[in-house]
Amino acid sequence: MISSKTMKAVVLTSPTAADEIILTDIPVPKVRPGWVLVKVRAFGLNHSEQILRLKEISAKYIQKPIIPGIECVGEIADSSDSQFRCGQKVVALMGGMGRSFNGSYAEYALLPTSHVFAVTSQLPWEQLAAVPETYYTAWGSLFECLNLTSGDTLLIRGGTCALGYASLQLAKALGCKVIATTHKKEKLPLLSAADHAVLDTGELSNGISGITKALELVGPKTLYDTLHCVNKGGVVCSTGILGGVFSVRDFDPIRYIPNGVYLTGFYSNSPSQDIIDKIFNFLSVHDLIPCIGGIFKFEDIKEACKAFDKGTINGKIVIKTE
Ligand SMILES: NC(=O)c1ccc[n+]([C@@H]2O[C@H](COP(=O)([O-])OP(=O)(O)OC[C@H]3O[C@@H](n4cnc5c(N)ncnc54)[C@H](OP(=O)(O)O)[C@@H]3O)[C@@H](O)[C@H]2O)c1
Questions:
Q1: Which of 137, 142, 228, 241 could hold 148 in an S-S bridge, CB 3.0 to 4.6 Å?
Q2: Which atom of ligand 1 is found nearest the CA of 266?
Q3: What domains are defined for the chain?
Q4: What does pTM read for this prediction?
Q5: Does the CB atom of residue 297 touch ligand 1 within 6 A?
C-alpha cells in the first residue's frame, strides 16, 4: 500500500501567500501506536487552513514546520495497532489535524485513530472529500444544535459558502422550508434550491417572519439581528464567522438574547463514527450528491488556494491527489 519512501506535501514554516505554495518531497511518516497511516486520495479546503497559512502560523502554539489540512479521505496504508485493515476506505477530520500535528495537504497522513472513521460509500473520491468537515458541521449545527425537524422554517444566513449549500441541501431533503441569504445580489440565483433567496443588507429582522430555526454563518457581525429574526421559542445556532467578527463584545445575555429565544453554537472538533455513519446514510437514503464548487489536482494546489483566497469559486474546493 505504501508505494514510496518519500511523498509530496505542502510544508509551512511561516505566513505563506497562496502564490508562494510549493510541493516539497519529504519522508513518508512512520506509523506509531494509536495512529494510522492514511493514503490521502482527496481533501477539501477550509477557512481555518487559510487563517493558519496566512497568519496563525506565527502563533507559538502551532508546531512548525506544519503540513496543513484539517480533513481528508483515503485508504489505510498502515493500520498499526488499530482495528482498521489495510486498504480500508476512511474519512478523517479535526482533533488537531493540520494544527497540532501534520494534516492532509500530503500524499500520506499519519493520523490518530480517534479522528479516523470507516466509510463504505461508493461516491467517487472527489465527492467523498466534500463531506467530512462541511457535512459534519452542517449536520451537527442542524441536528445536534437546532434539532431541525421537517416542520421547521430555517433561515440560513450567509448561504453562499460550502457550509451554506450543504445545510440547504440537507434541510430541503428533510422537508423544511428554507430561507437563505447572500450579501451579494448577483449570487441570489446560487440559492435557487431555497424556498426564498434573500439579499442580506445587514438588517433582516424587520422584514422577515415565521422563522423557527436559524443557522448563523456570518457570525457575531449579524448575530444580534438573527436572534431577532426567529419566533419566540426559536433557536439560533452560531457556526460561521464569514463576517470576520469573531466574538460578541461586552456580551450581556440579558439584553442581547430576546426573551424566549435560544442561542447555541457548534464546534466541529468531536466527530464520531456514529455521526459519520448517519451523514452517509442520510446522503444515500435521500440520493444526495455532495455539493462541490471546484476540483483541482494536487500539483495545482497553488491555483486552488489562489482561487480560495480570491473567493472566485462558489462552494467546496476539493483537491485530488491522483
Ligand atoms: N463552527 C465550526 O466548527 C465551523 C466548521 C467549518 C466552518 N466554519 C465556518 O463556517 C463558515 C463557512 O465555511 P465554509 O468552509 O463553508 O466557507 P467557504 O465555502 O470557503 O465560503 C467562503 C465564501 O463565503 C461567502 N460569504 C457568504 N456570505 C458572506 C458574508 N456575509 N461575508 C463574507 N463572506 C460571505 C464569500 O463569498 P461572497 O462574499 O462572494 O459571497 C466567501 O468566498 C466560515 O466562517 C468557517 O470558518 C465553522
A1: 142
A2: 1
A3: 6-130+292-320 (3.90.180.10), 136-265 (3.40.50.720)
A4: 0.97
A5: no
